[in-house]
Amino acid sequence: MRTVLRALAALAMTIPVAVAVSPPAAQAVGPNLLPVTVSNSTGRGDAVYLYVIGVQLSSGRLGYVNQAGAFTAWSGGQLPPSPAPDVSIPGAGNGGSTTINFPRGFSGRVYFSFGEKLKFFLTPDGLVQPAPWASGDANYNILFDWSEFTYNDAGLWLNSSQVDMFAVPHAVTVTGSNGVTKRTGDLVANGRTNVINTLKGTAGWANTVYTRSDGTVLRVLSPGKAAGSGLLASNYLDSYISSAWNAYTGKNLTVVPFGDQPNTRYIGRTSGNVMRFTNSSGAQVASFNKPSSASVWGCDGDLPAPNDQVVGPISRTLCAALNRGTLGTVDTQPSTNAAQFYQNNPTNVYAKVIHANMADGKAYAFAFDDVANFESLVNDGDPRSAGIVLSPFSGGGTTPPPSTGSALISNLNSKCIDVPNSSFVDGARLQMWTCNGTNAQKWSFSNGTLLSPSGKCADVANGATANGAAVQLWTCNGTGAQQFVLSAAGDLVNPQANRCVDIVDQNANDGAKLQLWDCAGTANQKWRQG
Fold first, then answer.
1. Per-residue pLDDT tens for 348-389?
2. What string of DSSP letters covers 461-529?
3. For site-directed labelling of 65, which of 180, 233, 243, 261 has its Cα 20 to 30 A away?
4. Does residue 214 carry a catalytic annotation?
């Protein structure tokens, strides 16, 4: 469930917030005011202006938050819309930082503009958001972007969004009470330039890039916004959609929408232009008309996603598969192997190039890019601080980890030890996956540790030594929990526990987890380098 704001139209703002479930009573709760540091390393000399706008969750009132974290509801809107008061917060220049505060119980956006303040307007129903994909919008020639967040009693969710456009490169961070900082959204070196030049050079996509008269590239529009403005063919994806949809006239599509509920499955078959889904009892639970390109770009229209436990999750999965180009060829969805994404023609070039230029491969390039956790989102249930890092527009960036090391292959299934979704975060549970040559499957033995290209180590969770202890990724710390030896017999042993790395339940499928277990010489405990 996505717990931050989705992209909003430039209408009176009614914010659809999916509020996270309240935590158990024993769980810690973040501070009433969460400090958020906005750092500027863009290399630009413009003045920076910040805005924190959204909805107070307890009352449902729309409003803004000042630098200290105090909420004020909007008032005085008119028809036609009247200018909103100036609620900008001065941001730091290049090399500096500004701290703002999120009040707990608030969900919204942090806007940041360069060189000029944004122009907001009020109606009697709420706030009119900037809509720079419309040439008549008051903010059309302003360089700006935003992050989205929800902060409540269950924690903080903060993401860098590219759902509507890609404009100002920025990373997001959160630091929990345990002192661990999570970060995502960093581009590779020259990533912004790479995105812009790739789209300019791809047939049919050049007009999605908007350059101001002074030569500044202000933004690249997402395909839905570009098509709606006449800048991308409205039927661009139709031929692929038809091919993928028709593939299931003669075979089943299996949708497993919840990663933690593998037995919840829905079977889809196409008849004419309609795909119908049945549950395990054979009862029909959902049906969808073949979607238009606009429905796929927006994950709406023919792909409605109500906030329920059946139709919405199926629709989300379908939309992600169509955007990623795996529907029709991968018959169990969602696909979690990024190497299979964007291989179709025509494809979502916008999402493909943005993901390709993210250091960790994660982005929010369409509305349901969070399916299978490929979104640029940080979350912590007990946050103590957070950050938004406005990144260099050229040069700089974060270079992806080098492809060092080799695969560790199981004798059970000839699959590789893998970091899920190439997400090199502390606590990522190591798994088995079909070998694909990515950095997620590269390992080096270094000073007794098993080192990933990210510089983090294979680790036994919490330093446990008992059977069933989980094997995960963690920042290297030199403890016995991170010592592993591959014996001549193919046993991958943790000397501290004197137990072997073992595939749980001898599961030969993709996604099988790793644990420690008494060495038994079985195939699920035998490994070779490849």
1. 999 999 999 998 889 999 999 999 989 999 999 999 999 999
2. GGG--STT-BEEEEE----GGG--EE-TTSBEEETTTTEEEEEGGG--STT-BEEEE-----GGGBEEE
3. 180
4. no
Superfamily of structural domain 35-230+350-390: Thaumatin (2.60.110.10)
Active site residue 148: yes
What pTM did the predictor assign?
0.75
Q: Do β-strands 514-517 and 499-503 pair in parallel, antiparallel, or remain unpaired?
A: antiparallel
Catalytic residue among 148, 360, 369, 370: 148
Domain parsing of the chain, residue ranges = 35-230+350-390, 238-343, 408-529
pLDDT tens track for 462-491:
999 999 999 999 888 888 899 999 988 999
Question: What distance in Å separates the CA atoms of residue 7 and residue 132, rounded to the nearest whole number?
Answer: 13
Chain-centre distance of CA 303, in angstroms? 20
Catalytic residue among 46, 153, 164, 370: 164
Q: Under CATH, which number does the domain 238-343 receive?
A: 3.30.920.50
pLDDT at 6 over 90: no
pLDDT 10s digits, 9-41: 333 333 333 333 333 334 578 999 999 999 999
- Calpha distance 50→67 (Å, rounded): 9
Class of the CATH domain delimited by 408-529: mainly beta
Residue listed under structure tokens 């599961």: 507
Residue 351 sits at φ, ψ, to 5 deg, of -65, -40
Radius of gyration over every alpha carbon of the chain, rounded to an integer in angstroms: 24
